[in-house]
Amino acid sequence: MQLLTITRNHPLRRQASFFIRQAYLDHFGASIRRLPGKLVALVDHDNNIHCIAGLRESS
Q1: What is the dihedral of CA 14, 32, 40, 6, to 10 degrees?
Q2: Contact 49/43 with Cβ under 8 angstroms?
């Protein structure tokens, strides 16, 4: 397992965004329009996402 920081231009960004959106839809019946620019994901050696969190930075 590996902890990755996934920014907007990361190769796994599309997969990560889908993972989050699908989880919210399945569990809460909600859709998410915007995600934080930075995500942190736990992935296995095949780049399957096991958990993910969005990071919001204060300004």
Answers
A1: 30
A2: yes
Angle at 31 between CA 37 and CA 45, to 5 degrees: 55
Q: What is the largest CA-CA distance in the chain?
A: 35
Domain that holds residue 50: 2-55
pLDDT digits 0-9 by tens, 6-46? 999 999 999 999 999 999 999 999 999 999 999 999 999 99
Tell me the pTM.
0.85
Query: What's the CA gap between 13 and 1, in Å, rounded?
Result: 18
Supply the Cα-derived Rg of the chain in whole angstroms. Answer: 11
Amino acid residing at 15? Q
**Number of domains the chain is built from:** 1
